[in-house]
Amino acid sequence: MLKLMWIEGQSPIAYTEGLQMGRLHDSPSMVTRLQAVYGLA
Q: What is the DSSP letter of 10?
């Protein structure tokens, strides 16, 4: 699962979830990479 989030006044963030784990990504380069991967899907 991938959730991309834009919060007014802040940099975009992404949340990824897999088997028994979840992770919040706030690195701009990682969020951009995840956006690109999502766009390909």
A: S
Phi, psi dihedral angles at 6 (to 5 degrees): -120, 120
> Given the structure tokens 């690195």, which residue do they identify?
27
Q: Which two tokens stand for residue 10?
A: 């802040």
Per-residue pLDDT at 41 exceeds 90: no
Q: Which residue has the tokens 């991309």?
A: 4
List strand residue ranges (DSSP E) for the chain, in order: 2-5, 13-18, 21-25
pTM score, two decimals?
Answer: 0.80
The total of other beta-carbon atoms located within 10 Å of residue 2's CB is: 13
**Which two three-digit tokens encode residue 32?**
């951009």
Tokens 């028994």 belong to which residue? 20
